Amino acid sequence: MSDFLIDEELLAAIDMGSNSFHLAIARVDHGEVKKVASMSEKVQLAAGLDENKNLTEAAQQRGLACLARFVGRLSSVQSSRLRIVATNALRQAKNGQEFIQKAAEILPKPIEIIAGREEARLIYLGVSHTMANSGRRLVIDIGGGSTELIIGEEFEPIHTESTQMGCVAYTKSYFPDGEINSKAFDKAVVAARKESSSIANTYKAAGWDTVVGSSGTIKACRQIAVNMGWSDEQETLTREGLEKLKEKLFKFKHVSDMEFDGLKEDRRAVLPAGVAILYAVFDVLNIDKLVYSDGALREGVMYDLLGRFQHEDIRDRSVQAMVGRYGADVKQAERVVETAQNLFNGVAFTLQLNSDDSDLLRRAAYLHEIGLAISHSGYQKHSAYLLQHSDIPGFSQIDQNHLSHLVAYHRRKLRHDAKLEVWKIGGNKLLYLCLLLRLAVLLNHSRSDEMLPAIELTVDNEQQWKLSVSGDAKQWPLLVADLHDEQVQFKHWDIDLSIQSEQFIDSL
Asked: What distance in Å separates the CA atoms of residue 323 and residue 365, rounded to the nearest whole number?
């Protein structure tokens, strides 16, 4: 089957937001993503975070029940054409992994927890593909647990930021009983001003031509303004309209009393908090008006997925950017990449490794030396830290965790207890990739383009690996010694590495 998505093929995205879960199914038509079905449910995952930042059992069950209903709509979508992303609530949840494991029994694909800036990038991608190009944009997306603010041009974000203010989280903090009063509202506004003021100078200096709002909160505010006659002739949400919405809110004592034409029931409880956040952002960034876009995170996820199939993968651009940023030796990285790929090809079938695993190994091979920018001593640990804690466009937190562990064990001794750690993170596949990267790096210790011996890696079974080396071992005395040491390290992870060559056997 072709790796390319062709016209008339389906793809889908599930966006597990802090307030609502969304499913979008789309058809690819001449490079454009045309939505054919969608489904949204208010789950309020963020409201289910207890005082210790653990998801309550009730919140988990709401989420799992919703995901089960979504899966019922996905029978016509191949799992390779589906992405499932989770945002702020699962970023914060200390027991998020517990929920993910439960969800894995329902879902055809693993959940990807994405970092705040990655969420912002994908939101911008969704907005930019669903609007006509109009110069430089400021995009605002108020979610349940966080608010993303992005400045970009055409399809490229310039500044991305994810702030800790969301309509569910703020409802919980400032409107817990559903009561509406100016004192609670002002407290929420002050908190949102403080949160957004950290980016104000940078964003104002960058400037923008238009302001675009996306997602449910801004959609509700704008729709109310239009229905109440508070918008302008272009049906944009103006500062004056937002002020009138705020004043109207104060006429109600409780969210259950609110009467707004066009306000959906599932938006009612979080509207005061959403208005407070938007009011603060308007104030801090001196915004006069914004237009609304239907594009948001789930559309961005689908366009990002489409790019991966069309070999326009943002992840590869990010890898090359990191190589450049940290001044890694490109030639050496490419040597290791080539060797790693050759080794991978020899064992992929037997070890049940797929193209995603190949991509992960390749990216780790490019990035394994970035820690040298910090220090040569223990640089693999520095590389791992950078990969774990950087905002890397296109990568989920799980992706970064896998990359981090791959490069962490590409040199020095392999502890037996580290095997269990790696296995817990990525199973046997990640273990095998760690060992493949080690061999690829070891075989290129000379850091030169001098001819290496012909090398072939095969596996008899998962615990029995065979490295066939041709040529006269006397030409590569250091390689012989290194391979001998590596046999010992492989043994620590319960794998027998045999070296098949008369010369090598004699010398070992």
From this structure: 11
**Is 5 domain-assigned?**
no
- Which domain CATH number covers 66? 3.30.420.40
Range of the domain at 441: 313-507
Q: Distance between CA atoms of 462 and 177, rounded to whole angstroms?
A: 58
- C-alpha R_g of the chain: 26
The answer on pLDDT for 298 being more than 70 is: yes
Residue-wise pLDDT for 318-339, tens only, equals: 899 899 989 999 999 999 999 9
Tell how strand 147-153 and strand 136-142 pair up: antiparallel
Burial of 283 (0-12, 13-18, 19+ CB in 10 A): middle
Distance of alpha carbon 336 from alpha carbon 330, whole angstroms:
10
291 beta partners: 212
Q: Count Cβ atoms below 10 Å from residue 313 Cβ, excluding itself.
A: 17
Task: Let me know if residue 123 belongs to a domain.
Answer: no
Asked if residue 148 and residue 72 are part of one domain, the reply reads no
Entry pTM: 0.77
What's the CATH number where 208 sits?
3.30.420.150
Domain boundary among 261, 282, 307: 307
Gap between the Cα atoms of 140 and 128, Å rounded:
12
Q: Does any domain span residue 119?
A: no
pLDDT at site 29? 76
Residue 15 maps to a domain: yes
pLDDT per residue as tens digits for the range 422-449: 898 889 999 999 999 999 999 888 888 7
Domain count for the chain: 3
Helices (H), 88-181: 88-92, 96-104, 116-129, 167-174
365 vs 383: CA distance, rounded Å = 11
Tokens of 496: 């027998």
Do residues 203 and 250 both lie within one domain?
yes
What is the rounded distance in angstroms from the CA atom of residue 429 to the CA atom of residue 398? 14
Q: Pick from 437, 499, 433, 497: which is nearest to 465 by CA?
A: 497
Phi and psi angles of residue 208, each rounded to the nearest 5 degrees, phi first: -160, 160
pLDDT at 508: 42
Is residue 507 pLDDT above 50, yes or no? no
Alpha-carbon span 427 to 449, nearest angstrom: 34
For position 32, what pLDDT does the model report? 74
- In the predicted model, what is the mean pLDDT of residues 290-299? 90
Contact 112, 86 (CB under 8 A): yes
